Amino acid sequence: GKVLSMYARGMSQRDISSTIEDIYGFKVSHDMISDITNAILPEVEEWQNRPLKKCYPFVFVDCMYVSVRNDYEAKEEAVYVILGYDLQGQKEILGLWMDSTESKNYWMQVFDEIKARGVEDIFFISMDGVSGLESGAKAIFPGVVVQRCIVHLIRNSIRYVPTKDYKKFTSDLKKVYGASSLKAAKTAFDTFCDNWKQYPGAIEVWKRNFLHVEQLFDYGSAVRKVMYTTNAIESVNSSFRKVTKKGSFPNHEAVFKLLYLRVKELQKKWDKGHLNNWSMVLNQLLVNDQFKDRIEKYIQY
Known about the structure:
53% of the residues lie in helices and 16% in strands.
């Protein structure tokens, strides 16, 4: 137990070994630590293949990079994290995926796997501009609305803005995607474009993706807020980064072992409550013809 909890905090085998020696006065070999952490591999596999709920109104996809050693050279590889909110407003990490091949049908396979694990319906997917994700998700869940993550768009656009202007720039942007109506958003966008025309690169990011701001206003304000607030998956990934930044991993299994232990800790916290304002989100979905019947299929009144 002690070894696993140290491992979950991202400690290296050398650190774990010396900590155990300091506390208990005996040595633990690297092999022994490996054996202890390998014992959770069947549990990891079971978790990755476990049955899921039938409906997740909101799903967030994000990507982080870890360093994996391959024949003496370390290579940055993407780990995709998929987080879902169920109809009770509970958070759940549906799974973790690593893809070295980047094949054209990769995302279709991922969503096919999610479907095979019991998911019948997803309303919204919020994601960064991951190539192939939108068509892959829609091939399996035709009724899904794909939303570009506002936080990533902000990040992409502030690359073109000097640090001194970040604060003002992002607060002007919030008036656009956080506006009370589409009309107000369009007015705020005109003002925004005018105020920041000295940074055409930054404005271009938003012009190119404005339909992702516009489509937010097809839904009630509580639903909009869930769609554009990606804090949930951001905090998952920052919790992951704390344990993966220590160095490179020998293989994919080592990455999954470590992240799985982290997921277990997060899930324990989440099981204690649900999302703020969830009843309002559900009410706003229920008055929308696009979702009413789909929700009633799964919710028992």
